[in-house]
Design goal:
Length: 206
């Protein structure tokens, strides 16, 4: 893969999954983080006026999920066949659904009391359904295998650690009474390249 540039803001947000793919494979890339005026100036030149944008050669590509999928395919993290890819994609779509239906609402709420109420409703309600689903898939991993699709790390595992980290950013503990989830999070997080990146990445709230 030729050296690429991933442009986003100084946060994990919609770029972290792509960064995790690149980092866990030890691929060099430019991790460009725009702040303030730099974004205002660049915005009109981006494909859709939004970030992240991946630049490969002289071409720019947008849409966070498309970028993550592309990088995963290029680097052997998208499964060995379409069924494995389906396992990965359902996890990806589940976390996207949770973000779009629930977390965005909490993020956008400016009133502290209303925000707390939204967090409580989410934590006690649909979050449990989503985490049950992740655990259900983890329970299906065959004896002696460590990852979502078996013995090979995939984008699905990165989606899980990125998604759980995002839930944590809302001061919600996704691991309460969920030892399986915690074990998987720790196992993937212990992969040396991932542990190194998590330790050295810029500390941001989201
Ligand atoms: N569906 C797009 C959404 C892109 C998007 O809305 N990005 C936000 C940041 S997460 C953005 O660029 N906001 C700044 C702006 O619109 O000016 C994706 O997943 O990449």
């Amino acid at each position: 893969m030729s050296k690429c540039r991933l442009t986003y803001f100084n946060s994990r947000g919609g770029a972290e999954l792509a960064r995790l793919v690149l980092k866990c494979k030890g691929i060099e890339f430019e991790d460009e983080r725009l702040e303030g005026d730099a974004w205002t100036q660049r915005k009109p030149d981006t494909p859709l006026g939004a970030l992240p944008v991946l630049k490969i050669g002289d071409k720019e590509y947008c849409q966070s999920a498309a970028i993550a999928r592309y990088l995963a395919k290029e680097n052997g993290l998208m499964g060995a066949n379409n069924l494995e890819a389906l396992r990965i994609e359902e996890m990806m779509e589940m976390f996207a659904e949770m973000l779009n239906r629930e977390l965005i609402k909490i993020y956008m709420e400016k009133d502290d009391d209303k925000k707390k109420e939204l967090v409580k409703t989410f934590s006690e309600g649909s979050l449990q359904k989503y985490l049950d689903f992740v655990e259900k898939r983890l329970k299906e991993i065959k004896e002696g295998k460590a990852f979502l699709i078996g013995d090979k790390l995939s984008l699905g595992d990165l989606v899980i650690i990125d998604g759980l980290t995002m839930i944590g950013a809302f001061k919600i503990d996704p691991f309460k009474d969920r030892t399986l989830l915690k074990a998987h999070f720790d196992r993937v997080g212990a992969i040396p390249e991932i542990a190194k990146w998590v330790k050295e990445r810029p500390a941001t709230n989201f």
